[in-house]
Amino acid sequence: MPAGLDAIFRPRSVAVVGASRQPATIGREVIHNLLGFEFSGKVFPVNPKAAVIHSMKCYRSVTDIPDEVDLAVIVVPREQVLRAVGQCARKGVRGLIVITAGFRESGPAGAKIEARLFRMVRAHGMRMVGPNCMGVINTDPEIRLNASFAAARPERGEAAFVSQSGALGEAILANAKDLGLGISMFVSMGNKTDVSGNDLLEYWATEPSVRVILMYLESFGNPRRFTEIARRITRKKPIITVKSGRTEAGARAAVSHTGSLAAGDTATDSLLQQCGVLRVSTMEEMFTVAPAFAMQPIPTGPRVGIVTNAGGPGILATDAAVALGLTLPEFSPRTRRGLRKVLPREATLGNPVDLIASATPERFERALRLVCRDPGLDSVIAIFVSPITVDARAMAEAIVRGASRAGKPVVVVFMSKAASAEGTRILRAAGLPVYLYPEEAATALGAMNTWRGLRDRPTGRIPKFRVHAARARRVLERAWRAGRELLTGEEVEALLRAYGFRLAPSRIVKTAAEAIDFAQSTGYPVVLKAQSRRIVHKSDVGGVKVDLRTADDVWKAFRELQVLRRRAPDLRILAQKMIRGGRELILGMTTDARFGPVVLCGMGGIHVEVMRDTALRVHPLTDAGARQMIRSLRGWPLLEGVRGEKPVAVAAMEDALLRLSQMITEQDLLRELDINPFIVTPDPAGCRVVDARVRIGAGR
Ligand code: ADP
Ligand code: MG
Questions:
Q1: How remote is the CA of residue 631 from the centroid of ligand 2, in Å?
Q2: How many other CB atoms are there within 10 angstroms of residue 659's CB atom?
Q3: Is residue 388 very low, low, confident or very high in pLDDT (cuts 50, 70, 90)?
Q4: Can you tell me the distance from the alpha carbon of 23 to that of 19, in angstroms, rounded to the nearest whole number?
Q5: 610: how many CB neighbours lie within 10 A of its CB?
Q6: What pairs with residue 600 in β-bridges?
Q7: How far from chain centre, in Å, is Cα 401?
Q8: Structure pTM?
Q9: pLDDT tens string 260-313
Q10: 48/142 same-domain check
């Protein structure tokens, strides 16, 4: 008996609860699709008000069905759903697709029923897609399951598609069919009450019929699980996602720099990339790239060869390809010698090679074969613009022959009106993606090349530092039990020290005399800072007095800071050693709603939000990740040292980032952390944290 998601995708029998004879009802469409798609198992209509539906005996209840039932598709009104599911549980049904709407999406009453539905599903060990969804399709010839009310019928292929929105799902299926994009499995998830996008990723990861996973999602579900699964799968299979257009406002910007810098769309791009997920900006782009991923091998490099029978489209394809990071090298001497024999004497043998309008199918085929076999090329674009004199069908067949056994991705631009449908059909049937415009072909190859980079990204290793994790945990737990979200200065210091961070020497001082005393014992210059729960960013209120070189300076600064007592009755003054001769960096972490904990580093100081020179990574960080992060900053040359300056201790920065990452792993209460600045000096032993804040919370 199929269990888990197999009960949904590979059932041997399906009951349709709420099946109907009435035209234009979902209950009828589902039955109709199951039969029309030639489901390989048994179908049982269930409806107490009908005796026969579609020439099949109709049952009063699932429990009346004499055979075993693996999957039930529920389309009854909301009020009857729980009862129907209860009967399914009694019958031993393992899979549910609840199409009925009116749950969480409709308000509190619906949300209540949904919660009960969820408990029922879990209690009986069932799996459920929906509610409020369009259904599920599996085109496997052994199964042929169309348990949906979609009008379009997908062809068999190797793309799996998951859509959060049902309406969009319908459009996706129709579009896929028009483009010759075959579908392996399709799921419209609805409210994701039980089966989530993460579950599907996991299921498809090991599914041999799925070569590429396409997602339209507004949210990924459990972010930690998503990043973990996506990172693993994308080492083997591409995941392509469309951006949903929802950008997150930096709502918590007031507390930490990291929080505001990590929000927004560019952050999403960067984080998805690190999980190996390819993000496209539009549905249109998704459909441009998906057929290439589904039908062609991944190129082993960026080098493209173009064969065309018209100059203009060749140039357009070249420009688009180069803009996407692809290259067009010269052909190998051997390819050139071959082409010389095929082409008229006046033809040039550059890349793109232009066969001119008079090219016959035979000549196109020979030239294409030569270019496909050139070992210096990783992918090929064949462009055919139909002159009226050439038979498009014969040309399509010639292209298929020329591209066969290429061993590398080949995509075709077929700009032909006469009999183009026929030509396109021939090309697609041979597994070649066909485009109308040269730029689309370049987009497809560009995306595949980008994905190759993502797939082959360095793994790196996660070092383990010897730290005082238990001590740090006690600090955080004590603050949490005391009901505080923000740690005090002392707590921050204890936490950071426990993880081996070095802090600038400092002391809370009660009087100017004490401050002068501190300065004399550590040595001038010093800094005085205002500390208060009312003051988040000290510089904003004139609460940081730097470069105090004499007792007199300290005395004056101390007096000036007293003014702040009016707005901050809990004011305390911190005296700190001034760290000189370094660069200010920011190191931070925040908890992203979609990706879980993320780590940030960048050029720091009080102007971080203005400069926005930061890099963001999904936790946990590897040594390779930390290296890359720092080197991706615009300010990297400043850290390396320009114009005779000494380089700063980059290794100390990497070390600090990796320690921070370990802290995130070990301290669940950590929600947000800002170290700004971490002052990095040329001497690794001189680097110091001079300011930090930490926010804690449960349920990261
Ligand atoms: P806040 O971020 O709350 O405004 P900081 O303690 O980060 O306060 O101080 C603001 C700026 O003052 C820092 O970015 C840095 O330029 C400078 N600064 C503060 N403390 C030191 C120090 N100990 N050594 C050198 N510069 C310091
Ligand atoms: Mg600061």
A1: 23
A2: 18
A3: low
A4: 11
A5: 8
A6: 588, 616
A7: 38
A8: 0.83
A9: 777 766 677 778 888 899 999 888 899 999 999 999 999 999 999 999 998 999
A10: yes
Indicate the residue among 434, 456, 478 that finishes a domain. 456
CATH code, 105: 3.40.50.720
Nearest C-alpha neighbor of 594 from the set 276, 285, 267, 282: 267
CB 545 within 8 A of CB 560: yes
Q: Where do the H-state alpha helices sit in 242-360?
A: 257-261, 265-274, 283-295, 311-323, 333-342
In sequence order, what are the beta bridge partners of 527?
Answer: 576
Q: 535, 550, 577 — which closes off a domain?
A: 577
Indicate which residue's Cα is closest to atom 6 of ligand 1: 691
**Whether 405 contacts 432, CB under 8 Å:** no
Closest CA relative to residue 327, chosen from 279, 379, 403, 374 = 379
User: Would residue 476 count as lying in a domain?
Assistant: no
Is residue 529 within 8 Å of residue 544, measured between CB atoms?
yes
Give the number of other Cβ atoms within 10 Å of residue 389's Cβ. Answer: 8
Cα(417)–Cα(424) distance, integer angstroms: 11
Tens of pLDDT, residues 642-685:
888 899 999 999 999 999 999 999 999 999 999 999 999 999 99
Evaluate whether residue 338 is within a structural domain: yes
Q: Give SS3 for 476.
A: helix
User: What DSSP character marks residue 504?
Assistant: -
Query: Residue 534 and residue 610: Cα distance in Å, rounded?
Result: 23
3-state SS class at 52: strand
Output the pLDDT for position 254.
40
Which residues does a 6 A CB cutoff place in the pocket of ligand 1? 504, 527, 529, 537-539, 544, 546, 576-579, 584, 605-606, 676-677, 679, 690-691
- Residues pairing with 159 in the sheet: 183, 212
Ligand 1 mutation pick, 522, 531, 546, 579, max ligand atoms within 8 A of CB: 546
| Domain hosting residue 179, numbered range | 6-210
In 3D space, the residue among 502, 480, 520, 495 whose CA is nearest the CA of residue 697 turns out to be 480
CATH number at residue 514: 3.30.1490.20
Q: Do 448 and 569 share a domain, yes or no?
A: no
Q: How far is CA 584 from CA 18, 432, 675, in A?
A: 66, 53, 10
CB atoms within 10 A of CB 377: 24
How far apart are alpha carbons 143 and 137 in whole angstroms?
10
Which bound ligand lies closest to the C-alpha atom of 531? 1
Within-domain flag for 286? no
Question: Among 6, 504, 620, 618, which Cα is nearest to 272's?
Answer: 618
Tell me the sheet residues that pair with 156. 183
- Residues 137 and 165: their CA atoms lie apart, in Å, by 15
What whole-number distance in Å separates Cα of residue 45 and Cα of residue 27?
Answer: 9
